[in-house]
Amino acid sequence: MKVIAFVGPSGTGKSYRSLIIAKENNADGIIDDGLLISQGKVIAGTSAKKEDTRIASVKHALFIPPKYASEMQQALKKSNIKTLMILGTSEGMAEKIAKRLEVGPVEKFIHIEDVATEDEIAMANRMRLEDGKHVIPVPTFEIQKDFSGYFLHPLRRFQPNLDVEEKTAEADKSIVRPTFSYMGDFVISDEVIIQLAIHEAMKAEGIHKINNINVRKTTHGAHIDITATVKYGCHVPTVCRKAQYLIKNTIEELASVNVRRVHFLVRNLYTE
């Protein structure tokens, strides 16, 4: 396996540019903050951005905990990756990651300063420092289950001068604000989820009243159980499916909480 590295200080836009740089260097695998990414999919690892502290995040990204290193070593051995690109804040960090993963040596270093202008680096830095946002180079649906409750959305910035493949690379990124964000912690209460669910359910034509809602949070997202009264004469399955769709989409969009299930129990019919 050939190993190259894409390096630059934290917050300079490495992850943002990684897909294009990988394509230009024929790299079919990327190591970025604890994740192994190939063909737009996370095929192994967990993101270091999920750690509660910066120190824990750095150790995770360097694969210092044996469980992370072992898991990634096995995944790399099983993969068909021919060229692996490691993202790091320095050449030394990239070399440490390669050593921990038992790949390498690093044959080529690409520096962020060689592929981005000073203004582009400054913009990326402001995005990190002022907004506390980090880019992960995979589509949102690939990582949403692992980042339920974090501010998460696709990064889609259309640039007319990009070719089709570059536009695809531009779109296949997600922004996540980790728990050790520079802006502090945040909590979304169950009551917010309940209020959103009621509001959206009542938009579905045929729903008369929401009798009860129970929200259960899991590692991979929320399970929402709803008891409702529907109007007599409506097609009940259609009404429930519409309400499920509205609830799931709105909660995921507005609260960034992954909704794993919306279960409807129709208990009563309302007749005028």
Key terms for this structure?
Rossmann fold, 10 helices, Alpha-Beta Plaits, three-stranded antiparallel beta sheet, 272 residues, six-stranded mixed beta sheet, 12 strands, alpha/beta
Describe the structure in your own words.
This protein has 272 residues and is an alpha/beta fold. The protein folds into 2 domains: 176 residues, Rossmann fold (3-Layer(aba) Sandwich); 81 residues, 2-Layer Sandwich (Alpha-Beta Plaits), CATH 3.30.70. Helix content is 38%, strand content 28%. The protein is built from 10 helices and 12 strands. The strands form 3 sheets. Strands 4-3-2-5-1-6 form a 6-stranded mixed β-sheet, with helices on both faces. A 3-stranded antiparallel β-sheet has the order 7-9-8. A 3-stranded mixed β-sheet has the order 10-11-12, covered by helices on one side. β3 and β4 form a beta hairpin. α9 packs across α10. It is elongated.
